[in-house]
């Protein structure tokens, strides 16, 4: 029988073992195809020309997905090879050369890859239409991105997965060539050596994890570069996790085994000893499970956070339906006439006053404001804006911004959606006076108007602002809230812009105009406002730039969280299955000497719990600090998103834990 036919027959005979593996591979192939097809979608490419972050997001997710696939394939291949060592030994005993056995296993690996492509690629093509439809919705597009069959993505997918399975086949071939008959036949009976107890390495692992957590909580206060902080945290926590499961956990389990009062209760001795003696070979899987769990929870929580942040940040970038900067009464009158001729009615007008100024930091090394240019306004102006807009939690925000003599508040500009800079406690010089920054915050004021939206805002006491205003040039931004015309006449609009500055009965937070319906009106306003678009801002603007990016991050974050979850489940499943196959003989003996099914089940729950629940708990802890870092970067609290992410993951993992424990019990007790 030829090597190819033999490989196919062996693959068919082992379909029960390879079933779940093939399903996971097919799903992975389908997901990878859609990520690869994004870069060849014409509509997405055209959009990406205007929004570079969309390309970065898709390429980053694709790279992370590929890394996850490589790890999973490598781990699963090792599991299957380990389970078939005795089978390989029998072939060697029958006189078949190691070269031929190696060729058969290599061909079998490539057949698995081919089957995964044959199954996963059609599934990916079928789901591609839904994928692009949902991506378009997440990007706030009226229609989903059009479906296109990408031959480039198909070729790229075949090349990547073909290369991966070729490498795995060569790895199996080399492993068989280097194997020995006795070693293969005795593989199942080979006892695991106990792990080395390295208390120093265990303590160092905990210290590294703690150091990563401390940096995540304080990098902003320490003025660390974001990339440096992120890479430092990733390296410290990853190394610490491996050292924790490789050394610290071994020390903890050895102490538990030495405690007679603990270990001899119920069936704990069997469970803890099984985990302890296999820790030397399993700690890498446990550490990787913890990292994958952290990635799953973090990706899901971040995707929820971006979705909520996109909706909440609209009020920062565009507080008003329409706004423009001008102190000229004639210009304001023309604007009122344009509004009077439009389909909209003015339901509220608010004026924001501010002074352009040069800001210098006492610490000359700080570069916060470009060319030291910024905007200065008063506490009363901020209070009036928040009250007009009926901003949520405005009382709390105003309390945080309450000023005393010599203090100022820093408001991050509306053009910046996230920044890790920390200026609290810093001293600045304005108009010859020195102020200490009490608070760093981001609240709506003038919005992301082109000429001024990129400048940070400094808030002073009213008296201090008056002194500054007397020596500077005060500008006025007119913020207008619009609604579909319903009983309004032109006179209402004209009076609204010329005379009224505040209407306490208006609720600026309510949006009465669809963003894309403002284009014609904005164009007409740009023709009469000095400076045109540079001095004009509208509610539609955010939806054609940053919010596409946040929608992409939201959608791709959900996809990546599902991929990470699948990798986590599969890694745990193959590890537990491997342990169950090794434990069958041991539990058969315990069953013969009187161990009941209930005691076996209790022992299994303990054993699986240590090897399953502990990595999940560590992963959730990592994700909590990762989300805390995101909060520091974006200056927003994501507590609810974190609770949703952790809660959903915990429920799913709890169900998975119960199911896999029952299967484990069935395998070692009944089979």
UniProtKB/TrEMBL annotation:
InterPro entries: ABC-4_Integral_Memb_Prot, ABC3_permease_C, ABC_permease_BceB-typ. Keywords: Cell membrane, Membrane, Transmembrane, Transmembrane helix, Transport. It is a multi-pass membrane protein. Residues 488-510 are annotated as: Disordered. Residues 62-169, 559-656 form the ABC3 transporter permease C-terminal domain. Residues 500-510 have a biased composition (Basic and acidic residues). The keyword Transport applies. Its main location: membrane. It is found in: Cell membrane. The chain crosses the membrane at residues 20-40, 52-74, 110-131, 151-170, 199-219, 231-253, 286-306, 547-574, 604-626, 638-660. Belongs to the ABC-4 integral membrane protein family. PANTHER family: ABC TRANSPORTER PERMEASE, ABC TRANSPORTER PERMEASE-RELATED-RELATED. This is FtsX-like permease family protein.
């Amino acid at each position: 029988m030829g090597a190819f036919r033999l490989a196919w027959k062996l693959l068919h005979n082992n379909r029960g073992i390879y079933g779940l593996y093939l399903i996971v591979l097919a799903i992975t192939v389908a997901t990878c195809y859609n990520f690869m097809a994004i870069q060849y979608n014409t509509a997405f490419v055209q959009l990406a020309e205007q929004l570079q972050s969309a390309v970065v997001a898709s390429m980053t997710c694709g790279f992370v997905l590929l890394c996850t696939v490589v790890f999973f394939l490598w781990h699963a291949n090792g599991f299957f090879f380990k389970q078939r060592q005795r089978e390989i030994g029998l072939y060697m005993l029958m006189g078949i050369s190691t070269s031929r056995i190696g060729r058969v296993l290599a061909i079998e690996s490539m057949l698995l890859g081919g089957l995964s492509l044959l199954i996963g690629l059609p599934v990916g093509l079928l789901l591609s239409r839904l994928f692009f439809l949902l991506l378009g919705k997440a990007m706030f597009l009226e229609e989903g991105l059009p479906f296109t069959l990408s031959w480039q993505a198909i070729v790229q997918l075949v090349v990547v997965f073909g290369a991966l399975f070729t490498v795995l086949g060569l790895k199996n071939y080399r492993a068989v060539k280097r194997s020995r008959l006795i070693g293969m036949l005795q593989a199942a009976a080979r006892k695991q050596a106990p792990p080395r107890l390295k208390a120093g390495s265990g303590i160092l692992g905990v210290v590294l994890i703690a150091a990563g957590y401390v940096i995540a909580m304080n990098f902003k206060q320490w003025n660390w570069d974001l990339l440096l902080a992120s890479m430092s945290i990733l390296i410290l926590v990853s190394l610490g996790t491996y050292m924790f499961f490789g050394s610290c956990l071994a020390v903890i389990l050895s102490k538990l085994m030495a405690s007679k009062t603990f270990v001899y209760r119920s069936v704990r001795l069997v469970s803890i000893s099984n985990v302890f003696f296999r820790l030397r070979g399993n700690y890498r899987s446990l550490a990787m499970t913890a990292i994958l769990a952290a990635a799953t929870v973090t990706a899901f929580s971040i995707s929820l956070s971006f979705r909520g942040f996109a909706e909440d940040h609209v009020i920062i970038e565009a507080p008003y339906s329409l706004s423009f900067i001008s102190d000229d009464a004639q210009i304001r009158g023309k604007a009122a006439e344009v509004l009077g001729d439009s389909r909209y009615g003015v339901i509220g007008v608010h004026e924001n006053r501010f002074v352009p100024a040069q800001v210098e930091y006492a610490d000359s090394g700080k570069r916060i404001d470009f060319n030291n240019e910024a905007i200065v306004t008063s506490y009363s102006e901020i209070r009036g804006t928040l009250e007009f807009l009926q901003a949520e939690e405005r009382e709390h925000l105003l309390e945080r911004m309450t000023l005393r003599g010599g203090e100022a508040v820093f408001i991050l500009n509306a053009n910046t959606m996230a920044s890790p800079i920390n200026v609290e406690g810093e001293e600045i010089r304005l108009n010859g006076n020195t102020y200490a920054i009490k608070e760093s915050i981001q609240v709506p004021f003038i919005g992301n108007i082109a000429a001024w939206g990129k400048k940070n805002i400094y808030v002073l006491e009213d008296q201090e602002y008056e002194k500054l205003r007397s020596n500077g040039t005060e500008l006025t931004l007119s913020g207008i809230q619009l609604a579909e015309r319903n009983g309004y006449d032109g006179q209402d609009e004209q009076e609204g812009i010329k005379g009224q500055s505040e209407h306490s009965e208006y609720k600026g937070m309510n949006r009465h105009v669809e963003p894309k319906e403002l284009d014609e009106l904005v164009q007409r306003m740009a023709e009469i406002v000095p400076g045109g678009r540079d001095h004009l801002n509208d509610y539609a603007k955010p939806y054609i730039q940053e919010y596409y990016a946040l929608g992409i991050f939201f959608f791709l974050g959900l996809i990546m969280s599902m991929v990470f979850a699948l990798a986590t489940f599969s890694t745990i499943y193959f590890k537990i299955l491997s342990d169950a196959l090794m434990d069958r003989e041991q539990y058969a003996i315990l069953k013969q000497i009187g161990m009941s099914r209930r005691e076996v089940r209790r022992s299994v729950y303990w054993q699986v719990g240590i090897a399953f629940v502990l990595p999940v708990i560590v992963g959730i802890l990592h994700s909590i600090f990762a989300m805390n870092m995101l909060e520091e970067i974006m200056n927003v609290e994501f507590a609810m998103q974190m609770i949703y992410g952790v809660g959903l993951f915990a429920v799913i993992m709890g169900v998975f834990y119960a199911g896999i424990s029952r299967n484990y019990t069935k395998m070692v007790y009944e089979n």
